[in-house]
Structures are given as C-alpha cells and as structure tokens.
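Working notes for the structural subgroup meeting. M.R. asked for a predicted model of this chain before we commit to crystallization trials. I am recording the input and output together here so anyone reviewing the notebook later can reproduce the run.

Input as submitted:
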Amino acid sequence: MTVRVVLADDQPLVRSGLRVLMADHPDLEVVGEACTGAEAVRLVQDVSPDVVVMDIRMPGMDGIEATRLITTGPGATRVLVLTTFDEDDYVCGALRAGASGFMVKDMALDDILAAVRVVAAGDALIAPGVTRRLIADFVGRPEAVAERSPRPIEGITEREREVLTLIGRGRSNTEIAADLFITVATAKSHVSRLLTKLGARDRVQLVITAYEMRLVTLPR
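Returned structure, recorded in token form:
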C-alpha cells in the first residue's frame, strides 16, 4: 500500500529534500505541499492524505492548531510533527492536539521515513531524544507533579511491565512486537490494557508512568 503524504513546512528546502527523498521509495507518495498551517488544513480537505508531515512554527496558523483541525473526527488524517530540537517544548501541545508522532529534523532521514510509515500504520511514535527532554521537563516541575494522580502499579503482569518499559524508551507498537517476538496486534492489546489499568489518557502518560515506576531512567 502506498502512503500518501502532505508536507507542511514554511522552508522550501525542507519540503524539497523530503519530496526528493520520498520519491526514491515507491511506498511513499507526496501528494501536496503547504507552507502554512491554514494551507495544510485546506490541502488535507482536498486530497485526503494518509499522513501530514507537519512543522510547528509557520506563518499565521501554526502547526499545533493545524494539527488540531486536521485530526478532528473519525478516520481523520494522521499527523507526524517534524520540527527542530529548539522547539521540542511544543511536544505536549502537539500530542494533545492529536499528533501521532513527534520527530526532530536532525534525525537520520531513514528514521524520519520510518516514522511516516509507523504513523500511517496506526502507531504512535516520539523521538527518543525528545522523549527524554519531555520527561525531564515534566518530572522537574513541582506543579506538574502535584497535578498528577498517583499511578497504580497493582495488577500489571510481567509482560505488561516489559511493554511499559519499551513504551518508556519511545518504542512503537511495531518495534515492541519485534523486541518481544509477539504480533503487532498483541502489542496493541497490551498497550490498550496498560492504558486502562494505569488510568492513562494516552501513550505519553504511559511514558511518564514508566519513568515514575523507575522502569526507565533519565540519562545523567
């Protein structure tokens, strides 16, 4: 199956580089380009892509608001945010807006293409470096700690603990399945049960819980 992609970035060089790169991969097809958030929203309505590769800082409507509008409703286009390290403070806003992934522009190009495929397949993905910075910022704010409800750890099976550890390391469902020699469907089932058992709203909260439970630790 070909993944139909829209590139939304106000830097022509970035769009051009991604378009040329994807042209070498028959399973990826660029069906449109946008230089503003508003243009990305209109383009999605016109061409119905599978994935939008979305920058955050763009003129007028930013990528977070565009993501919120694009991902509203059932069967909506999925969004992979691709931005710079300096902008990773926006990760929470992007994920709350409905983004399925958050990657940074200085990652290997092959990793970015792999992220597009992961998001298109229905998984969520956060760049490991961004995850570490996100968690470091989150756990370092006293007010954030006070706002969080205690995470119950009772009733977690050993396999679910392994899955939670891998989630904390930023692994996708597909990667978890490969690491544990299980099917992707089984990995998704484990993630779903963890969301229910831990009272987590989304995958990001599972990452935070993994750190709180000391299944994963921040690098020194």
